[in-house]
Design brief:
Helix content: 40-55%
Shape: elongated
Structural class: alpha/beta
Number of domains: 2
Bound molecules: 5'-O-[(L-methionyl)-sulphamoyl]adenosine
Distance between the termini: 19 Å
Largest sheet: 6 strands, parallel
CATH topology of the largest domain: Rossmann fold
CATH class of the largest domain: Alpha Beta
Number of strands: 16
Strand content: 15-25%
Strand order of the largest sheet: 3-2-1-13-14-7
């Protein structure tokens, strides 16, 4: 069976940082876990390269938008390589194949009567690429606090207002579609206020995909970006099943509305199947503060990986932060986890078990085992299926400390000296080795 999952596609106005890595590492973890559960997994990520924000960022660096996107998109691709992530499709929104799928979505919505031409005067937040409906000139954006800009445009509109009820009913009928629960409640509350129509084209910027209509319209960047999820696998099948719809969109909580409201509405309008699940995780903070370029507290993954390796960084991120909630990154916490959990916990169990097997049994693992690992595995699988990574890891590390206690209790160094305890020694060593084997398999994702 296929399992198709996606990360957001990242804006190319800034280089990749630990926040982007967090989502992509979690996605790769789910990909490995689902592969171990027997699925054929496809993981898509990519770069979001159009829009006003990118056009301005390019201007500021004296490059053309195409030059800037080529450079930064490549940095993202390299970052995933450095982190050892298995990316099956890397989709760029400037690819002509993607543009075709965007135009197809538009044309379908147009044919079904959900698109009309109108004029818009209102406030726009360039940073979030978001229309702020109730704002007055000079008002800040409710999402990020930056001052909105007044735009007046002849635009194509999507009849989002027609979808208030449909999207609401869909969420109500599918309580597992959007998780965690707090995010779902936010979206339900937003939907209950009713939706306004959405401008999906711009004429004031050039850096975008042209609409298949007269005039100089380019697509609103979110209409373009969301369609990546579909374009990345357009027309493709796996195990005799079409890859679309996605089984999971993994996102950060700040882009919830686009994914849980706009995207389902566009797809409903076009009569295309909806993704099966959206999971919005929390924010990674730096020492409990929001990370940002202006604060100068953006953490980059590469220097950390150079020091402690990809597995340790991955372990840290998934163990330290409860997935779905905000969590804090600090270098002290990384060192603490590295020493306590990895070097002492797992590392110590491995080195002591291997050393004893070598010393007492010439490196040959004896048998049989003393414990039943079924419950540990079941609890781990249950947690990982819910993307509750930190709890799943706790279960594994509880097993490691059990094994530590067990070794102390059995005292193989005493058993080795007594000719009558040789079978007991075999059992003890086997149990320790078997624990390591199981732990190694379970922590693989
Ligand atoms: N281009 C849009 C997404 C379009 S998806 C069709 C975008 N890009 S972004 O570059 O701003 O990336 C946002 C995503 O990066 C978040 O949703 C989240 O997955 C990840 N993160 C960026 N900073 C983060 C943290 N500080 N903490 C956790 N995740 C963060 O929005």
């Amino acid at each position: 069976m296929k399992y198709y999952l996606t990360t957001p596609i990242y804006y190319v106005n800034a280089a990749p940082h630990i926040g982007h890595a967090y989502t992509t590492i979690a996605a790769d973890t789910i990909s490995r876990f689902m592969t171990m559960q027997g699925y054929d997994v496809v993981l898509t990520t990519g770069t979001d390269e159009h829009g006003q924000k990118i056009e301005r960022a390019a201007e500021a660096t004296g490059r053309t938008p195409q030059e800037l996107t080529d450079i930064v998109s490549e940095e993202f691709r390299k970052q995933w390589e450095v982190l050892g992530l298995k990316i099956d499709r890397f989709q760029r929104t400037t690819s002509p194949q993607h543009a075709e799928v965007v135009r197809d979505l538009f044309t379908r919505c147009l044919e079904k009567g959900y698109i009309y031409k109108g004029s818009y005067t209102g406030q726009y937040c360039v940073s979030d690429e978001l229309y702020v409906n109730d704002a007055k000139p000079g008002d800040p954006c409710p999402e990020c606090g930056r001052i909105t800009e007044t735009v007046t445009e002849e635009n194509y509109f999507f009849k989002l207002s027609d979808f208030t009820e449909k999207v609401l009913q869909f969420h109500e009928a599918n309580p597992n579609f959007l998780q965690p629960e707090t995010r779902r409640n936010e979206v339900l509350a937003f939907l209950r206020q009713g939706l306004n129509d959405l401008s999906i084209s711009r004429t004031t910027i050039k850096w975008g995909i042209p609409l298949p209509v007269e005039g100089n319209h380019v697509f609103y960047v979110w209409f373009d970006a969301l369609t990546t999820y579909k374009s990345a696998v357009e027309g493709q099948q796996l195990d005799g099943e079409p890859l679309w719809p996605a089984d999971l969109h993994l996102i950060g909580k700040e882009i919830l509305r686009f994914h849980a409201i706009f995207w389902p509405a566009f797809l409903m309008a076009a009569e295309y199947p909806l993704p099966k699940r959206i999971y919005a995780h929390g924010w990674l903070l730096f020492e409990n503060e929001k990370m940002s370029k202006s604060k100068g507290n953006l953490v980059r993954a590469t220097p950390i990986v150079n020091l402690i390796g990809t597995d340790a960084l991955r372990y840290f991120l998934l163990r330290e932060v409860v997935f779905g909630k905000d969590g804090s990154f600090s270098y002290d916490a990384v060192i603490q986890r590295y020493n306590a959990d990895l070097a002492n916990g797992l590392g110590n169990l491995a080195s002591r078990t291997l050393a004893m097997i070598k010393q007492y049994r010439d490196g040959v693992i004896p048998g049989p085992a003393d414990h039943d690992i079924g419950e540990t595995v079941a609890r781990y699988v249950e947690a990982f299926e819910k993307f509750d990574f930190s709890r799943g890891l706790e279960t594994i590390w509880a097993f490691i400390s059990w094994a530590d206690g067990y070794i102390v209790e059995q005292a193989p160094w005493k058993l080795a000296k007594n000719p009558d305890s040789q079978q007991r020694l075999d059992e003890t060593l086997y149990t320790a080795a078997e624990t390591l084997r199981i732990v190694t398999a379970l922590v693989y994702p």
